[in-house]
Design a protein that fits this description.
The chain is an alpha/beta fold. Helix content is about 20%, strand content about 20%. It is built from four helices and eight strands.
Length: about 200
Amino acid sequence: MNTRQAADMEPQTAAGKVLWHFTMSLDGFVAGPGHGMDWMTGFSFRPGLVEEYAGTTGAVLGGRDGWDAFPDAGGIYGGAWQGAVFVLTHHPEDAPSAEGVTFLSCDVAEAVRIALKAAGGKNVEVLSPTIGRQLLERGLIDEIDLHIAPVLLGDGIRLFDNPGGAPLRLELLNGDRAATVNVRYRPATTDPSQSVR
C-alpha cells in the first residue's frame, strides 16, 4: 500500500486532461453564498502549487454565474496564468465583452472540445460545479483536483450537488485507490490546554 500523503501528490502535468479543479471547504463548498470567496484567506498551499497549475493549464472553462461574480480573466491564479477563457452561458447576447474571453452557447461536450483545442496539449481546467457535474455524468472529466481547506462554510455553492442522484465512486490517485482520506482538525478557536475533561 502506498502511504504517501496528499501533500506528496505527484505534480500536475500538462497532458491535455480535463481537470475539475477547486479549493474546497471541508464540508464540500467551493464558494460561499453568492459565489463569495472571502473565506479563502489565511490558508497556505505547498510551495510552487500555483505555478504548477498555471504552467500546465492551457484553457479554462467556467460558467456564467461564476464569471458574473468575478469578471476578470487576469485574476486567474492571481494573474500568474494567461490563456483562453471560455464561459458557457445560455444567454451570450447579454455578456459584456472581455479580452481573452469567449462566451459559448453550446452543449458542454462541445465546450470541452473547443477548450481542449485552444489548450494546445495542455490541460483544461473546469472552474464550475455545474459544468463539472455535467461533464462527470458524461465521462468527460479526467481528474478531480481538490485542495481541501480547513474551514466549514455551512452554506454556499457545493462542488457536487446532485439531489436524488446515485453516489459516484472515485479512485484516489495518490495512495490506495479505494482508501478513505484521513484528516484530523480541531476548531482554531479552541485552546487544547483549556478543554474541560
